[in-house]
Design goal:
Oligomer: single chain
Radius of gyration: 24 Å
Helix content: 25-40%
Number of domains: 4
CATH architecture of the largest domain: Orthogonal Bundle
Number of strands: 17
Largest sheet: 6 strands, antiparallel, barrel
CATH superfamily of the largest domain: Globins
Length: 369
């Protein structure tokens, strides 16, 4: 048992238990999503003690130097004193290289980032310091791969014109905060059915075979498997099969949430979505699908990309109501159960704490840390 100090709370991390699992077990509030180190939501800063090197290996150099680790990847071997991530450490140092004027008065800025900046086209960010006397909101529009520049669009009425004389522009340093989550205003409508494709896929028989092979890969994949904790493979295959059947045939056979709501908490960047698509293509080829069949299937999956890919969770919605999922609550049990952390029996009438999204309950011993 390794003692942990975090925001004035004391707990003990068990042997071979990650910091994130210890936080959830003891009811410590922390952002998290993937549990595989991809989303970086569970960053914490080591103030005292030595964390395992692998807990920071996937982080940019500037975050490693600042003492950050991923709670989901950190299994302590000794005491640690930790702090939440600091907004001051989440800034990206940038250098302005060019500005292009547009006829409508807006501008496109080209700049270099000193450290890795992952974003989705359309996300917003704030620029400040240097030539920006007050924060300026920009829309990230892409990358100029030839020159290694990030491109951002800024409206003419918010840009401090005097600060951008062309001869003083090159090399101006500034800070970037963001990018901020981009949630589509409306979720994607179901695509037009393609009954011919369904028939080409042997009336769904090939769909079932591919999904069975695909989810064998997913449940063995260290990046994707954590998204499916406590969900049986059979259930996932059944849900995905009925959803694809409804999309391709138009038959109303799927019972469940649409992709945007179902994936609301999953932080899935484009790189992870592409990784998922590669595993799907492998499974399809292994089951003998033709390029025509694969292309038709991929069209349905790409249709929902914007409802799935994101750099921060979106709220879960029921109509116009936002459903809170990222906090703890307590309940008094009508029936006995077992602790999800250690397997001990919990008697009926006990009051237990649980995480709303995960639904895991703990016995008094586990909750105390």
């Amino acid at each position: 048992m390794n003692p942990i100090q975090y925001q004035g709370q004391s707990l003990r991390c068990r042997e071979d238990e990650s910091l994130l699992d210890a936080f959830v077990r003891t009811g410590v509030a922390i952002d998290f999503s993937c549990k595989s180190g991809v989303c970086r939501r569970c960053l914490v800063k080591v103030l005292d003690g030595a964390a395992p090197a692998e807990a920071a290996r996937s982080l940019p150099t500037h975050l490693q130097s600042a003492g950050y680790v991923l709670a989901c990847q950190c299994k302590p071997s000794g005491p640690l004193s930790l702090a939440p991530k600091s907004p001051a450490d989440m800034l990206t140092q940038c250098m302005l290289v060019r500005r292009e004027h547009r006829p409508d008065g807006s501008s496109v800025l080209g700049f270099e980032a000193a450290t890795e900046l992952a974003f989705t086209v359309g996300q917003s960010a704030q620029l400040f310091d240097g030539p920006f006397s007050s924060p300026v909101t920009v829309r990230l529009t892409g990358r100029d791969e030839a020159q290694g520049l990030i491109q951002a669009e800024v409206a003419h009425d918010v840009l401090p014109q005097a600060a951008f004389s062309d001869d003083a522009l090159f090399g101006a340093d500034f800070q970037l905060r963001g990018p901020f989550p981009l949630e589509p205003e409306d979720e994607a409508l179901l695509p037009e059915p393609d009954l011919a494709l369904w028939q080409l896929l042997e009336h769904g028989r090939l769909v079932r075979r591919v999904l069975e092979a695909f989810y064998q890969k997913v449940y063995a994949d260290p990046l994707l498997q954590p998204f499916f904790e406590r969900v049986s493979m059979e259930r996932v295959i059944g849900k995905q099969y009925s959803f694809l059947m409804q999309c391709m045939t138009g038959d109303n056979v799927y019972i469940g949430e649409r992709p945007k709501n179902a994936h609301h908490w999953m932080v899935i960047p484009d790189t992870l979505f592409e990784h998922r698509q590669r595993l799907m293509a492998q499974a399809q080829r292994e089951q003998g699908l033709t390029p025509e069949q694969m292309a038709g299937w991929s069209r349905f999956e790409e249709h929902f990309r914007a409802d799935i890919v994101k750099h921060a969770p979106w709220p879960r919605r029921m109509g116009d109501q936002i459903i809170e999922t990222e906090r703890y609550d307590s309940v008094t049990l009508d029936e006995g159960t077992v602790c999800d952390h250690c397997g001990a029996e919990i008697a009926a009438g006990s009051t237990v704490r649980f995480h709303l999204r995960l639904g895991q309950v703990g016995c008094p011993s586990c909750e105390r840390g």
